[in-house]
Amino acid sequence: MKQQEQIFVFSDVYNESAARSQAEVEKTGAFGWAAKAKLWDRPKESEVTLVASEKRYEPFWNIRASRHVKFEVDTNYTAKASNPHALHTTILGQKLDFPPGLSITLTAKEYCEKRVELSEFFAGFKKNNASLSLPAYVAKFQHQPSNNEAEQKLLLPEITQAFLSQEIKKRLMEPVDASTILDDALELHEILLYYRPVYAFEYAWRDKRGVVEIDALTGNVNKEGSMLVSKARDMMTRETLLDIGAELANSLVPGGGVLVKLVGAATKPAD
Fold it and tell me: Does the global pTM surpass 0.85?
């Protein structure tokens, strides 16, 4: 059985040269509204210099999970004879008397099953600068399994497993209108982590610094960007994702006898 990769990296549409050219066009707008407000003292292209640049990969999650509940519901069925002259009838081999012109109530127990599926995307950073919806990146752009996380500078997500578990539970663990819960299983099928490439260019003008970010897939420009790789203490690894997957499965246990299964867990590729 082929092992399933859990970290995917997108290929550039715009390379570093194209991204830098676009950033150069936008560089005078990188110093905020205050610099733009002064008509007599705005940044000139010749005064703005490039001081640093980086290519990084920003994360977003795709979680696929499901809930399967088996339960009983105590209920009543109301029956009424179709013929107004009926005195009694036989239902499932049992003779029942009908009051003339009225109905009778049958006590019943319904045995039910309910399955709820979830496939949800979550931004990896609290400040999400994605220029498309996250599913649109996956649908539109080429991506492949990561084979060298360290060299690709994959940033650790700010959105933690604690947040993800809350969101999954909120979507899946809605109360079931039941008399008795017979079985309740929450299955975590996939934890996929996608990384999209972003170029960042830091510019200096007098005593100010500004960063222009270029989405390497869409070409979208963010003139209020940040340099992140130099500030990051740790990068994402496959082992970190395995730890997050295990923590996420454990944190999903909501109490009340719900069984949590980690299905198709992330595994290291065979040597």
Answer: no
